[in-house]
Amino acid sequence: MSSSPSLHPDIVSNPRAFLRQLFDAAVARALPLANTAEFLPPVPKGRTLVLGAGKAGGAMAHAVEALWPKDAPLSGLVVTRYGHTPERPDGVPTRLKVVEASHPVPDAAGLAAAEEILSLTHGLTQDDLVLCLISGGGSALLTLPAVGLSLSEKQSINQALLKSGANIGEMNCVRKHLSRIKGGRLAAACAPAQVVTLAISDVPGDDPSVIASGPTVPDATTCADALAILKRYRIEISPAVLTALESAEWESPKPGDAAFQETTVHLIATPQQSLLAAAAWAEAKGLRAYVLSDELEGESREVGKVHAALARASAHGKSPFIKPCVILSGGETTVTIRAVKDKADPKSREGRGGRAGEFCMGLALALQGQAGVWALAADTDGIDGIEDNAGALVTPDTLERGRQAGRSLDEHLEANDAYAYFQALNDLVFSGPTHTNVNDFRAILVL
Prior knowledge:
This protein is of the alpha/beta class. It has 16 helices and 12 strands.
């Protein structure tokens, strides 16, 4: 993308505020109420049942309630993360039940919600419509362990996967094969009703079978794939789980299965759309905007180093990214937890922080105070990992201010402790729950 030559003075005078405006523009593009109407199907002859799960679940449910004809029957249940149910828009009738549960590690509330969702599918006919509202986070929120698997063991496996460095596709492959509702099983339970899925993508490639572990779409992965992933990351499982996966007892419905004959999937918001919205905002301010990719994966700190190399090359005039500019990217990086609290060692600690903070530490360390480069990285759901911040900011003097505050970036990176480092600099980014989720957002401003 290219820009007009007139750079808005606010960008130079307050780069922090400008970066936050880009993040807000990306989030606004993905809000459910602005993206749902065009994808709603006609009112069916029978009843309309709404089922769903994800961090955007509450906002998606409210959008459907606001847009669905007020004289048409509407009922159902959607589960979202604790604290992620937005205020109901004025004048919107309460027709759908929204409950909250734990994320990223499932809990009993998520189990109860999944059981109720599955029970609501009983008695559906071909005259009925099921609207499935799916967004990122649904894998943990829609938890219904496979027969013979306890919730506690599923929680342990999930926690181990989150710390392993496995990417989202690998984690969701395992989750699908440890579930009675994900991996297409919800769609199978809804047959013969028409199933229309409205999804907000939070995954690289926007594959519906990966978003929230694809409860309404066919699953091309296998029990053998799931077992291989568990072995690759040395995740401990019980003999019963091993036997079930080896025997394919917990296999998911595959492409071509009759259960999917009456299913349709619409992506109502994607990471690329949000990046383009941020780019348009930048260009309106007279700044060149380059969208690097919406599918970046890998270790957060290493992705940060790559972005630093691009920014430094642009700053030195050795890049096709012509300064002044902003370089935008998305995707879903990972953090391998290396530091574990040692109770016998008072100096040891297990750090706080998520993918965005880890990215910012890797970026700042590689930039080494490069003049003219500012950056913001944040999760578009407003929560970086399990903390209360969305992400963090990097400035040309991040390292120097860290030293003045008595903070070693190397030590914080070793401890996966981004939260404490950027908190000491007052450079954490807070948005609160955004009620959507199109995953990582990164903006590197080069002046």
